[in-house]
Design a protein that fits this description.
CATH architecture: Orthogonal Bundle
CATH topology: DNA polymerase, domain 1
Order of helices and strands: HHHHH
Helix content: 55-70%
Number of helices: 5
Number of strands: 0
Radius of gyration: 12 Å
Low-confidence stretches: none
Largest sheet: none
Distance between the termini: 38 Å
CATH superfamily: Flavinator of succinate dehydrogenase
Amino acid sequence: MAEPREARLKRMKMRSMRRGIKEMDLILMRFAEARLDAMDEAALDAYDGLLNENDQDLYQWVSGQAVPPAHLRGLIDAIAAEIGRG
């Protein structure tokens, strides 16, 4: 049985704000609150996958210190734009 959209959004928002490092808690929490509700299922699938990435890697990608993998580039750019880097 598929996870209901409301439950999925709640789970993803919780995972966004309970990361390993405080910086990523703040960055992903802000992005999740601003964008998740409007995302379609494919975008939510991509974001759900991104939540499995290592926080240190995510922080370097979002802050522009390292180049993200090609399959995450669009999402990382959207997160960076949300926090004002992009």
